# Entry
Amino acid sequence: MAKWLRSGLRRDICVVVASEGSTTAQECKAAVESSYDDRLDPATFYGALEALTDGGHLDKTVEGLHDRYELTDAGRRALFDHYDWVSSALPESRSG
# Structure
């Protein structure tokens, strides 16, 4: 499993960016915080965005005052690999 997958925050950022398409950093942060039902430390969040961009999982473009992020092909592959791993570990039925 890729090293970037060791961070749940990084995975969750990629999930948000995949679902939202091109998103600003603030939109992404708000969506992750909504999912967590908690505030994220800005330094932690922006550090995760930077690591994902540096690692080739996100592309960053500047649009006016905002940075916009999109998932790269490598980021998409990593998400699908993680999804396949989680899916294979879960039982077929949710009833239990």
